[in-house]
Amino acid sequence: MEQTRTIIGVDLGGTNMRAGLVIGDEIKEVSSCLVPKTDVAEEVTAALVQTIKNVLTPEVEGIGIGVPSLVKASSGVVYDVQNIPSWKKIPLKDILEKEFNLPVCINNDANCFAVGERVYGAGQGYDDFVGLITGTGLGGGIIKKGHLMQDQNCGAGEFGMLPYLEHDYEFYCSGQFFENVYQTNGGELAEKAAAGDQQALAIFSEYGTHLGKAIKAILLAVDPQAIVLGGSVSKSYAYYKEAMWNEISTFPFQFVLENFVIVPSVVKEIAILGAAALYIDATTNEQ
Q: Which CATH number does the domain housing residue 255 bear?
């Protein structure tokens, strides 16, 4: 990556929208605001435009945006954005390109995480890996031959939606597991585990077994060199690592595991950097 490139990365969450001015591998400035609680789609769009304008400079060459929804890859239309009920079908790419006269790349947040790790983080050493977010949900982005895998609706890697036991993998392999099964949250559980609480450690071990099963499914589906873990639950990796690997060790093709690695993300502000990396990946993708 050319260290002098200047890009705006936008993290459009369900609660906050944040835009960061990224120069090289550093975020120089961030603007943020609450997502307007309104049924009028244009009001949300206007807030996003202003947030981007707050960090815009003449040197900016493009804008990358991560959204918690599916995106039609060919058109940049976003559908049913989580926690933004007015955004059912928004031609966001066209709107922003007309507003700023700059190229805009849009993808879902899990894909942005994966490509962010490829450009700025633990994925720099791997051409084929999965960036897997374990937080309020379970979702992934797939890097193949050094680039984000191209698909139709930016939905490849939504492993959490695959059926598993009585529900799906997301129910058992994200923070939902702690809330739905044990009526607690991952943060509180991590504090207890750090203090040596045996019940908390047992719950994390159970979680690790479920996640290990999900990772075996990913190995069968995608066959990556590595998985980079992100999201809030990845911060508790030490408490479920052993159980997770014990489950992975039962994978039917043992030679696959010889060089397979799992690495927790350590990149700060990966959501903004990942959105910027989306633009970098798109403009250097020679597939």
A: 3.30.420.40
